[in-house]
């Protein structure tokens, strides 16, 4: 966790404000299941460059890592190339001389030219003519790559932001009327009952849903059920919920 703007006049590189933010942030990350003791809290000033690449004399009280060292210490996660392809669309462009180009980040699987992809919802299928990243053609795109891919026989009116592309031959994405999710209530006034209707942001989709059924209340860290069919949930609770 990088704590920026340590050069701000009211802070003036002081340890007291840093400690206050660490305490506040620690309680938040603990709520969502992380151990604060295993997290690096790094004071920095992006504007003045303090503790970004090298130790800063302005932060002589801080004995931990610089931001660059903290980033280098992170273990890179294994990219899920073995899972079915999923590319949530961020946007769709019409490019003269090329055609329709959806843009998105590969979340799982591998996207390749000549692959037949399916866009859901809508179940539209088409062939991928080419895959590009930063104007360079790729033989394949893997998880984490932000790419544009040229598709045949579809216009910009057929596909849109929020849709998901997948491989037609390997568990393609499908539209669903309901799904089950684990939900953690971090900050909400009052209690939440069945019938609550929030707006859900899932990757690039932005859509109204409904908590149609509270299936169980669970322990945030272990996922074990602690109460079946609760009447309500409140701040700090985690629950398995059926959304429609």
From TrEMBL:
Q: Which residues form the Tr-type G domain?
A: 1-75
Q: Which residues form the Translation elongation factor EFTu-like domain?
A: 99-164
SUPFAM superfamilies under this entry?
A: P-loop containing nucleoside triphosphate hydrolases (SSF52540), Translation proteins (SSF50447)
Ranges for the GTP-eEF1A C-terminal domain? 178-243
**Annotated compartments:** Cytoplasm
Q: Which InterPro entries match?
A: EFTu-like_2, GTP-eEF1A_C, P-loop_NTPase, T_Tr_GTP-bd_dom, TRAFAC_GTPase_members, Transl_B-barrel_sf
Coiled-coil annotation: which residues? none
Q: Per the record, which residues fall in region Disordered?
A: 222-244
Gene Ontology, cellular component aspect:
cytoplasm; filopodium; pseudopodium
Q: Give yes or no: UniProt keyword Cytoplasm.
A: yes
The residue ranges crossing the membrane are: none
Q: Which UniProt keywords apply?
A: Cytoplasm, Elongation factor, GTP-binding, Nucleotide-binding, Protein biosynthesis
Top-level taxon of the source organism:
Eukaryota
Which GO-annotated molecular functions does the record name?
A: actin filament binding; actin monomer binding; GTP binding; GTPase activity; translation elongation factor activity
Question: How is the subunit organization of this protein annotated in UniProt?
Answer: Binds to actin.
Family statement: Belongs to the TRAFAC class translation factor GTPase superfamily. Classic translation factor GTPase family. EF-Tu/EF-1A subfamily.
What PANTHER family does UniProt report for this protein, alphabetically?
Answer: TRANSLATION FACTOR
This chain belongs to which protein, by name? 50 kDa actin-binding protein
The species this protein was found in? Didymium aff. nivicola
């Amino acid at each position: 966790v990088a704590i920026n703007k340590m050069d701000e006049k009211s802070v003036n590189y002081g340890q007291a404000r840093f400690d206050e933010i660490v305490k506040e942030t620690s309680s938040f990350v603990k709520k969502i299941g992380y151990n604060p003791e295993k997290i690096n809290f790094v004071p920095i000033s992006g504007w003045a460059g303090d503790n970004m690449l090298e130790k800063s004399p302005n932060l002589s009280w801080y004995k931990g890592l610089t931001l660059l060292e903290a980033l280098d210490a992170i273990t890179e996660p294994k990219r899920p190339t073995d899972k079915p392809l999923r590319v949530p669309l961020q946007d769709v462009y019409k490019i003269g001389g090329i055609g329709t180009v959806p843009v998105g980040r590969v979340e799982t699987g591998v996207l390749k030219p000549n692959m037949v992809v399916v866009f859901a919802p809508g179940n539209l299928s088409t062939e991928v003519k080419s895959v590009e990243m930063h104007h360079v053609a790729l033989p394949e795109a893997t998880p984490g790559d932000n790419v544009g891919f040229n598709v045949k026989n579809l216009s910009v009116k057929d596909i849109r932001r929020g849709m998901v592309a997948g491989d037609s031959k390997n568990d393609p994405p499908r539209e669903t009327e309901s799904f089950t999710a684990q939900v953690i209530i971090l900050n909400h006034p009052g209690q939440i009952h069945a019938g609550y209707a929030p707006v859900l942001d899932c990757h690039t989709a932005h859509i109204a849903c409904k908590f149609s059924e509270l299936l169980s209340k669970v322990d945030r860290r272990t996922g074990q059920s602690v109460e079946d069919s609760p009447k309500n949930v409140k701040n700090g609770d985690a629950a398995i919920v059926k959304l429609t």
